[in-house]
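can u pls check wat happens w/ flavin-adenine dinucleotide
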Amino acid sequence: MDRDTRPTPVSRTADTARSDLSGAPRSARRGPRKPSTSSLPLLTILETVDLGFTPEEESFRLEVQSWLQSNLPKDWRQDGKGGYRDEEDTELQREWQRKLYEGGWLKLGWPKEVGGRGATPVIQAIYQEEVARAGAPGILGRLGVTLLAPTLVAHGTDWQKETYVEKILSAEQIFCQGFSEPDAGSDLAGLRTRAERRNGKWILNGQKTWSSGAHYSDKSFLLARTDPAAEPHRGIGFFLVDMRQPGVEVRRIKQMTGGGEFSEIFLSGAEVEDRDLVGRPDDGWKIAMTVFGFERGGLAQAARFERAVEELATLARDRGAGADPSTRQRIAQARIEAHVFRLIGLRNLTRAQHGHAPGPEASLTKLYWSEMDKRLQETAVGVEGMYGALAPHSVLAIEDGRWQYGWMWAQAETIYAGSSEIQRNIIAERVLGLARGR
Ligand SMILES: Cc1cc2nc3c(=O)[nH]c(=O)nc-3n(C[C@H](O)[C@H](O)[C@H](O)COP(=O)(O)OP(=O)(O)OC[C@H]3O[C@@H](n4cnc5c(N)ncnc54)[C@H](O)[C@@H]3O)c2cc1C
């Protein structure tokens, strides 16, 4: 849910950000290295980013592969042939999250002092890439695990950390995110949900929307206005709200995929105890910025797109569409774009490994992969010809309609986590240094 309000890294001006476009500095991270056993194109970009893996990193990769081999059942894997609908597999995703938690993987990047493995960005990327390559399902509490738990470690009270963090990671408690409202999406500061102090509690009234997984969530982390007289970015609180109370009503929104992954949340007199307010009553905006800082993509997505391109090529061969020059060109273009995306991921990883926080160039990554996926899915639907018009569940749909489903889902990718227009604004203003449009 990254918006134009993404925090600008304080140490970087538009000028320094612009220089990032010409490539990251050559790495001095490690000495000579042995050739990678992964599919990384080592020689092509050795001059600009740090690509090789140390023996320790390669042995970590083997550790992940072997753990997945023993713990990820074959029929849980996404085989790329459709029939797999993330949103319908809640119990499987809960179970998978538990396994990852028990395996110690969900705290990989956390500092050792808080029970993590203190893994470097490269180690974390290797883990994510291997999980994606294995076709592992998603985890049910992904928003809690990736966004809320690290935010609580940074801003929560001892009680909040003790009460929630392990439960979030182990899938005992599932949280959804209640930020967006009907009139506050890209412009999140326009949110109007009110939180008032009454009889020693916070009473919440208002409406949230597009809240992923709200229908199966136990709690939500939610922004509400504590001081309506304050400026838009101030007077906002960050609350942990019990979703199973009388003042909360969840209405699922039907999507064009046929699923109902997200919901509206109606708050009418919902109650929150003081202990479930994170930070001070006017810290919400600052804490929301921390949340956005944990939204990242990476090599896992690169692995996902590379797989998708291979599957697209297979589809074209199977359908006899490979002889058509324009189809061949589109598939080749998709392969090139997936490869470029891997290189972008590696450049970001090099920066992270050198201790640089992700800056506005993260918008380039988001814009690139979401627009690329739309093109890829569209090519696949085109390759299917008339069959591409069938609904995913139709008996005649090719590969169980996975490409039609993917095409429909891809339309959402250029909206959530900051729409393409918002990303272009950020790139224009903060990377290219152009004047603000408004
Ligand atoms: C699949 C999915 C899951 C989501 N999950 C969650 C969730 O769990 N929790 C949650 O809180 N929210 C969630 N969202 C909401 C998401 O964050 C918002 O959809 C997003 O922030 C855009 O807001 P909006 O939909 O209100 O569109 P708007 O902000 O109203 O934008 C409408 C159009 O105007 C354009 N636009 C807006 N402002 C500008 C500008 N300044 N310059 C140029 N163009 C502009 C946008 O790009 C867009 O095309 C989810 C959305 C999707 C699609």
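Residues 1, 3-4, 176-180, 185-186, 210-212, 262, 412, 415-416, 419, 421-422, 425 surround flavin-adenine dinucleotide (CB under 6 Å).
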